[in-house]
Design brief:
The strands form 3 sheets. A 7-stranded mixed beta sheet has the order 7-6-5-1-4-3-10, with helices on both faces. It has a two-stranded antiparallel ribbon with strand order 2-11. Strands 8-9 form a two-stranded antiparallel ribbon. The chain has about 230 residues and is an alpha/beta fold. Helices cover about 30% and strands about 25% of the residues. The chain is globular.
Length: about 230
């Protein structure tokens, strides 16, 4: 393990109950999908990354807000925000709008600049869609955010791309050496990717099931969840 100090990046997930914040968190940390979890617990989880020889630490706050919660606990802590809604739930989209407004007002008042990603989760449930991709993109643009659609239940790389995209943005703001990063794009039919500096080679169904990757990337280590109860599926 390198003796040099690793850069740390604090990322906060916000959104209504049931949109998949914990599922996205676990997918990024473990590469696995959770079906059941306790949505009423908030915690911070840590993942140590080594990507193409660049070492860094990502701290993820999976939030739960009660009526009497003090939002300053995550607003001051965050280097970046992920605001999540479900594409199958119109009220969750309106809640995401409220979170974007809250974060934007705080950043303006605090004279702070943090990247924001708006994420439409559950893209695997297309037949139940209530929010169009165009509506998500429009809302994201209103707050100068980065827009994604993904599914915590499907390919890991598309969840990873959200977190790496935010790390890349934070690094640029700090003037640090940035990740070699080219964003993925999602077509109406299926996920579609541009060629990346860390190439993604096709994997067999067996390799996917075993969570093996063809990326030039060393294994990550992480602090797994001590307080939450999860049912995890390969």
């Amino acid at each position: 393990m390198s003796g040099r100090k690793r850069s740390e990046y604090n990322i906060v997930l916000l959104g209504a109950l049931g949109v998949g914040k914990s599922a996205l968190t676990v997918k990024y940390i473990t590469r696995r999908f959770i079906m059941e979890y306790d949505p009423y617990i908030e915690d911070i989880y840590t993942k140590h990354e080594d990507v193409d020889g660049q070492e860094f630490i990502v701290n993820v706050m999976d939030t739960y807000e009660k009526d009497d919660s003090n939002s300053q606990r995550y607003l001051r802590w965050a280097d970046a925000f992920i605001v999540v809604y479900s594409i199958t739930n119109r009220p969750s989209f309106e809640t995401a709008r409220q979170y974007l407004q809250k974060v934007s007002e705080y950043l303006r008042t605090a004279n702070k600049d943090c990247p924001i990603a708006l994420v439409g989760n559950k893209s695997d449930l297309e037949r139940y869609r209530q929010i169009s991709k165009a509506d998500g993109q429009t809302l994201s643009c209103e707050y100068d955010g980065i827009f994604y659609e993904c599914s915590a239940a499907e390919e890991y790389e598309y969840v990873e791309d959200i977190f790496y995209g935010l790390v890349h943005s934070i690094q640029r703001q700090r003037g640090e050496r940035s990740l070699a990063y080219s964003p993925l794009f999602i077509t109406e039919d299926r996920h579609h990717s541009m060629q990346r500096n860390r190439p993604r080679s096709p994997r067999s169904s067996t390799e996917k099931k075993e969570d093996k990757t063809q990326n030039k990337k060393n294994p990550t280590s992480f602090k797994l969840f001590k307080n939450k109860s999860f049912k995890i599926f390969n």
